[in-house]
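Action item from last week, closing it out:
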Amino acid sequence: MKKQENNIAFLLSVSGDMAKVRGRTDLLNVINSRLKILFTCTHCGIGIVNTVTGETSPFLIDPDSKASYDTGYAGLFDDFDIRADNIINQVTAADVPLVFNLEAEEKTGRLPAIFKKNLQLGIKEVLMVAFNINAHLTGVLSLFSDVAYSFPDQYFDILKGISNQLSIATANIIANEQILESEKEKTFLLSVSHDFVACRNKNEFLDVVHEKMGALFPYREMVISLLNEDGNTHSAYLYNLTEESRNHQDYQERAAEKYMLEDGIYDILLNSEVPLVYDLEALLLRDFVPPYINFFYENGSRELVTVPLRENDRCIGGVFIWMGQKNTFTPSQLNLLTAFCSQISIAVANIRAYEKIESQLKQIDQFKAQLEEEKLYLQQQIDTAYNHGEIIGQNGGLKDVFNLISRVAVTDSTVMILGESGTGKELIARAIHNASPRKDKMLVKVNCAALPASLIESELFGHEKGSFTGANERRIGKFELAHNGTIFLDEIGELPPDLQVKLLRVIQEKEIERVGGHQTIKTDVRIITATNRNLLTEVDSGGFRIDLFYRLNVFPINLPPLRERAEDIPLLITHYINKFAQKFGKRIDKIADSVLKQMTAYSWPGNVRELEHLIERSVLMASGNTLKEVFLPKAITVSPPVDKVPATEVTLLDECERQHIIHVLKHTAGRVKGPGGAAEILGLPSTTLHSRMKKLKIEKADI
């Protein structure tokens, strides 16, 4: 009776101590202080068995155990399986404490690894008793002794009573730890959300992801991959890689590549609600492995965890986490990782929305700048327009020009207008544009001779803010302004050699770069050029590139000088008299025959432009209804024509092409293929050039 009372008193005392337990250390102190009074033992320990999965994990490891100093000690619990025939199975099935002699158990071949470790360290016996924690968790208390027969059964009833107290204390500790872990996770996720909101760009966001994810577990590399707009591929959006990966020979290709969705990994990710863990070595045994798997394996990764990213219940991509070791994630870590990636999903959606807004604002700024440029340009055109209401004339030379305009206007062919100064080359350019499918878009004029060489590039291609002294804001160039329209490059022969190279590239690539910029801009522009020079002579002297000449001289149109259009002079005089009489508020109905003869006999070195200016002055000086006098410049009335372009017969397109090919073949001494051959100069495959020569009947005798 006395013994029973003592046992009850002891259990009540232990129960009081257990009630004060708040953590694992408190529990260990109670077990050691109470049980070592009853039994001679070196140390204790508690393991927890999941009766559903059969897995066993350490709950309490006594630091007095020599085995506790082994870093791999906790991993030995993986050897347990409640469903196997071993001492753990026996203990959990029994309702009383059991004592095992480790040497005897080892001879049966059923001794788990963790007890083998204790046997190696001198432990002879272990006393074990099971206790229930909840519906699927069972705890096992183990007392270890390095002396045989050190566990008398007289205290087994007390030990059984203590195990009941242990079940309550262990359940409370587990619940408390779960609460603390949940609070810790909430605090962590709140800090993540706060830090993500503060991110102003992708780089800041990536830094926060790296910091927060690194606090969860020691990951090796991370990639955020998103679906592309085509709906069939995915690409890396953000990534944090090791130096080893960045120095890999395939790094640039892997980072920029678009990967197909159906690769056995990404397509599964898109339909998953939970993280997926992959062993890279197992993946590499598959028949097909996406190239990014090989890339990360070669750089040291051995495990991959993929977590889907969702936006409005739609998967938009995933987070790929690459680990250097296998089996590095606990279930609780995977759960927290899922919540963490939900925050990443929101942040990525916000960043993409912000990027879209920035892009739209940038486009608005570009459109605004373009409208301002167009407004300025059109105002300049109004102020400086070459005021022909129409092309006036009916002689044979002009009829041939009209015929060529009608043929070429409906195409996108590049046109070169040849003629002396003042013959109306801009009028012809406008006529071609107005009769073309681009007539509703802009015709942008650039006078290559009127701009300093240092400003021509900026004028043609635009510049970025700060690209040179005085570039206080970004400005679009004439090529960008003429997108989908026509650009008229007047006085093309004045273009400096370095700009000739850049113009050739624009013609070939159909894209430009602003001065000081790094982004290429696609352009769709029809090019019309004009010159009063003999460009073939310039080519021979090295002043003009032959490859650019043949790119521009696709369809030449020669304008006859006014002295060869004497029959058109009366028509032009009448037109300009009416124009300027109306402008100056005068009425002039007639022109004196002497004036008409005088003007018809004049050589007109300034051509139509000179005639226009002469009539303007004469109308201004006239009195009465008849124009009786004109003021021809006496000093140059008998002078030879200036900058005369050799008269050339107006030819049809095929004949022009034939002449060009023959000229290039002569230049290359008849060589068609190879470097410096005619095909290379003309920018044609040699087979195409042979076909054109056959069609145009170009023989060796022509070269």
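Closing note: Residues 382-389, 635-651 have pLDDT under 50 and may be disordered.
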